[in-house]
Design brief:
single chain; about 75% helix
Length: about 80
């Protein structure tokens, strides 16, 4: 589960960074659900695994950064820009 959360975190961060470019803000409509799912998977993975939690924590941090930044970018750009 740690690898899955890390992969979703990387995808959401890359999508969020691309979505910061003007006129590509609509990408955040796809980034927000991916980051939300990644956040949930990361929380479950951190809670269930007792050892070797590094990948899960990295995915948790990446998704926790991408989610609010993507939401703020959608609010600023009115959901389109």
């Amino acid at each position: 589960m740690g690898i899955v959360s890390l992969v979703l975190g990387i995808i959401s961060i890359i999508g969020m960074l691309i979505g910061l470019i003007p006129f590509l803000g609509w990408l955040n409509w796809g980034v927000i659900p991916i980051a939300g799912v990644g956040l949930i998977i990361s929380i479950v993975a951190v809670a269930s695994v007792k050892e070797n939690r590094g990948l899960s924590i990295a995915g948790l941090i990446l998704c926790a950064i991408a989610l609010p930044v993507g939401i703020i970018r959608l609010i600023i750009g009115w959901g389109v820009f």
